[in-house]
Amino acid sequence: MAKRSKRYNQAAELVDVTKTYSLVEAVTLLKKFPAPKFDSTVTLSFALGVDPRKSDQMVRGSVSLPHGTGKKVRVVVFATGDAAKAAEAAGADKVGMDDLIKEVQDGFTDFDIAIATPDAMASVRKIARVLGPRGLMPNPKTGTVTNDTAKAIDAVKAGRIDYKIDKNANVSAAIGKASFDDAKLVENAQALVDSLVKGKPASAKGNFIKAVTVTSSMNPGVKLDSSVFAPAV
User: Fold this and answer.
1) Contact assessment for residue 76 and residue 138, using Cβ atoms and an 8 Å cutoff
2) Which family is this sequence assigned to (predicted)?
């Protein structure tokens, strides 16, 4: 078993592992944890009742959090011409085409979101093996393949997040920072839940959200009572 820090153990002592918490209770509890020397990211994680091996039960999507993530999002854009100029004006961290693809091939992955125009995708697919495993591959379903590069950049910098089920049928996404007001974290969490439930595959039967946990960086998780999300279902 991994050795836990004194601060982690102090936080763990505050969690009653025999109960499940409401979202409001859990957020309040997170704020009582001894704080690390940085502003922790708060993450909401779900265990879903689907089979990710089946193509008709894949779960992925994007949602704009009402209060953003609190994180500076680094965006690169694969585009030329007017779309490239619009991306630069909208504040993209890097814009390019063949030159940017070459940089990625040489190991550059120091960014959070990649956006591409539809006509750029034929070239961007050359680096799919680099971008894909890192969750950086542009995708029309998440709004990152578009001719309106400025709008896409504005959306991700304002707090839009992407999420995707993993091989164990789990979904995790950041919903803000520990410094956020409780109400902002709760509203961001509810926005994520609403989006997730809305994207429930038609072929998925039974309980869709089996378990939910909220946590902050380097701290223990707090199990939520999934019935608190009943209004979203």
Assistant:
1) no
2) Belongs to the universal ribosomal protein uL1 family.
Contacts of 145 (CB under 8 A, 6+ apart): 115, 116, 117, 118, 121, 138, 139
Q: Which of 111, 128, 121 is nearest to 79 (CA)?
A: 121
Q: How far is CA 178 from CA 33, 43, 166, 192, in A?
A: 10, 10, 25, 17
156-190 per-position pLDDT tens digit: 888 888 898 999 999 999 999 999 999 999 999 99
Query: Bridge-partner residues for 163, per DSSP?
Result: 61
pTM: 0.77
Structural contact between residues 12 and 127, judged by C-beta atoms closer than 8 angstroms? no
Q: What would the two tokens of residue 161 be?
A: 């997040």
Cα angle at 131 between 130 and 133, to 5 degrees?
80
**Domains defined for the chain, CATH in brackets:** 6-68+160-224 (3.30.190.20), 75-158 (3.40.50.790)
Q: What is the Cα–Cα distance from 166 to 73, expressed in whole angstroms?
A: 22
- The DSSP result for 15-82, as a single string, is --TTS-B-HHHHHHHHTTSPP-SS-PEEEEEEEESS-TTSGGG--EEEEE-TT--SSPPPEEEE--HH
Instruction: Give the E-state strand segments of the chain in sequence order.
Output: 41-48, 60-64, 75-78, 94-96, 113-116, 160-164, 170-177, 209-216, 222-224
- What are the pLDDT digits (tens) for 106-165? 999 999 999 999 999 999 999 999 999 988 999 998 889 999 999 999 988 888 888 989
